[in-house]
Amino acid sequence: MCITAHPDDEAGSFGGTLRIYADRGVETSVVCLTPGQAGSHRGGAANDQELAELRKKEFAASCAILRVTKPVVLDYADGQLYRQELNRVVYELVSHVRKFRPQVVLTYGSDGGVTGHPDHAMAGIFGTLAFQWAGRSNRYTDQFDSGLQAYRAQKLYYSTADFVLPGRQQVTFAPATAAIEIGAVLETKIAAFKAHTSQQPLWPVFEGNTRKRGPQETFHLAAAIKQPPLEMETDLFAGIVED
Question: What DSSP state is assigned to residue 155?
């Protein structure tokens, strides 16, 4: 399961990985918190509602290219995720986790990814809480009345990188602990992003950065039921550079 903020995030940050695993027979789900109704690029839409409907269709087209098993678009306010009532959003995400029962959850860290977008950061915060709370029998117990059960996904990953987009604020990333080779589906990832036709002004920037980044998507393992071996630091100031 991949938890994102806007239509096009699924392709831009996770598209290669989603398609690679779909091709291996893995069921995938993308839960997008907003329909992207506040986007700067409007695609000819006359108002926010028209843009939301347009971007939902684009999201469906992109997910079809990425072979996403269960695409979901929720209806929270684009550009306003930091204003949403946390418990309400996490409740809804927990319901989706308990229904889909993913083994692995992908989302953003609190850094907001390569764009540093506040909505991406909030999607990661909501997604992290949903990952943790879906497995607890004392959280949102009313969901059990409809047949759902507490469910623990096994691993949580944040999208990470070693660069930021030009002209953006600096981002302090979590270190990469996993690199997924996506060279075989790189063109598919780009095609999925271009399914978002309303965002056509972003195509050259996205494609240029995607090709520059190379045939990998990188992730930071944020939580796991079975802890894999990682290099253990013995000095909290290791790597610190004096000002």
Answer: E
Q: What is the pLDDT of residues 205-243, one digit of tens each?
A: 999 989 988 899 999 999 999 988 888 888 888 888 998
Between β-strands 104-108 and 70-73, what pairing exists: parallel, antiparallel or unpaired? unpaired
Alpha helices in 81-239 (DSSP H): 86-100, 118-133, 186-194, 203-213
Kindly state whether residue 239 falls inside one of the protein's structural domains. Answer: no
Domain span holding position 133: 2-224
Residue 141 forms part of a structural domain: yes
Sort strands 216-224 and 178-181 into parallel, antiparallel or unpaired.
antiparallel
In a domain, 204, yes or no: yes
Q: 235 in a domain, yes or no?
A: no
Instruction: Please answer whether residues 66 and 14 qualify as being in contact, where contact means their C-beta atoms are separated by less than 8 angstroms.
Output: no
**pTM score, two decimals?**
0.96
